[in-house]
Amino acid sequence: MDEQLRVGLVGAGPWANMIHAPGIANHPGTQLAGVWARRPEAAQELAYAHGAEPFESYADLLSTVDAVAFCVPPGVQAPMAIEAANAGKHVILEKPIAESVEVAEQLATAVESANVASLVVLTRRYAPETKELLAQLHRTGGWTGADGRWLTGALLDGPFSDSPWRHEKGALDDIGPHAFDLLDAALGEITDVIAANVSETGLWQLILQHKSGATSTLTLTLSLPLQPPFADFTVFGTNGHRTLNSRDTPASECFTNLLDDFVAMVQSDTTTHECDVRRGLHLQRIIDLARSKAGA
User: Fold this and answer.
1) Residue 203, SS3?
2) Quick one: which of 123, 200, 248, 272 has the fewest CB in 10 Å?
């Protein structure tokens, strides 16, 4: 690139410290131009650690950047991202993209109307091993079902255990988008939630219908003391079965791959991507339908 993309970061929590800030600061195509967070001292500490400027107001940050990366709860992210899109800024969105389908639709409309680039941080989709398996599945065909499990104790201990929105929304909103995205990408669009149940301990179990005619099952939790966390997805059909359980590519490298795509989109004036805001809206609809089916 002749000129780096100036990116502002909203949020200064654990994920912003671990992934967003170093990823943006170290990528050859992006510059971490500034940080804004609800806690000014946290924004200042994170910004200074990566040679960026801390901003006292979101409006000031918006006025100086080309794009905004969000690392805040969904209820905070959506209205701020709408404001960013309306200001003509490209956006990198965390999942879920909003608190409800209605607000997610407003965000998608704002992004499309502004003709800006958008990507959702569906981390595993940017891993080479995931892309390789999905390509293999699509070449082979004949898949009739899948079983997915994503089991962690993130709410019990670790950097995200004090996250209020994760405790409120649980596994469905936090890791659900990742799981739905992978099953959807493997078997075709999820069109219905046939059944959904959530236990008192926050264990979600779901049966999903896909446009292809395939069905899949999914188990999610943030409340099991498993070390390390356990996640696998097995697809099966007339040609046997294939399993994705590898996490060989660290989240930081997945985010770098996302930034590769994001910079390329901006440079080429491209606003569509398999993981853009429309994908986020689709996943939001599945989340809301699952919660409705479970009566939660």
Assistant:
1) coil
2) 200
Please enumerate, as own/partner, the contacts of 197-206 that have beta carbons within 8 Å and a separation of 24 or more: 197/294, 198/170, 198/172, 198/294, 198/296, 202/155, 202/170, 202/171, 203/171, 204/170, 204/171, 204/172, 204/176, 204/290, 204/294, 206/290
Place of tokens 């924004």: 43
Decide: 244 and 232 in contact? Cβ < 8 Å: yes
Any residues with CB less than 8 A from the CB of 92 and at least 6 apart, and which?
7, 67, 68, 69, 70, 118, 119, 121, 258, 262
Cα gap 259→254, rounded to integer Å: 9
Pairwise CA distance, residues 125 & 129, whole Å: 9
Instruction: Let me know: does 71 contact 94? Beta carbons within 8 Å.
Output: yes
CA distances from 22 to 11, 55, 249 (A): 13, 18, 16
pLDDT tens-digit readout, 54-99: 999 999 999 999 999 999 999 999 999 999 999 999 999 999 999 9
Tokens of 162: 């004090």
CB 201 within 8 A of CB 223: yes
Q: pLDDT at residue 155 above 80?
A: yes
Q: What are the structural domains of the chain? A: 5-123+251-276 (3.40.50.720), 128-247 (3.30.360.10)
Identify the DSSP state of 68. E
- CB-based contacts of 224: which residues, under 8 Å, 6+ apart? 151, 152, 153, 203
Say if residue 228 is preceded by a cis peptide, omega within 30 of 0.
yes
The answer to whether 48 and 15 have CB atoms below 8 angstroms apart is: no
The answer to whether 63 and 89 have CB atoms below 8 angstroms apart is: no
